[in-house]
Design goal:
By secondary structure, the protein is an all-alpha fold. The chain contains 4 helices and no strands.
């Protein structure tokens, strides 16, 4: 499909929507769909390199061996006593 054909098809779709849609519900739904497809993709929550992950794991293992850790029960108590915002 050429760019000209694609643009003509898009124009036909827009024309059909504008001429035939008189329902606010349909317009709201189309707006939601368009926003979903035109929004920028969400970025991943975090990106670590393989090296960073390995370094973190080695550090955690060393801390565990040295007795520098927080037990599960201690973490539960901490979160149970934490004030809600």
């Amino acid at each position: 499909m050429t760019t000209l054909e694609l643009n003509a098809r898009k124009a036909d779709m827009i024309r059909a929507i504008l001429n035939d849609m008189n329902s606010e519900i349909v317009v709201d739904e189309l707006d939601r769909i368009i926003r979903r497809f035109t929004a920028s993709p969400p970025s991943p929550p975090c990106l670590y390199t393989e090296k960073e992950i390995k370094e973190s794991a080695v550090k955690a293992i060393a801390q565990r061996k040295d007795g520098r850790y927080t037990s599960h029960d201690a973490m539960e108590r901490l979160f149970d006593n934490m004030p809600l915002q």
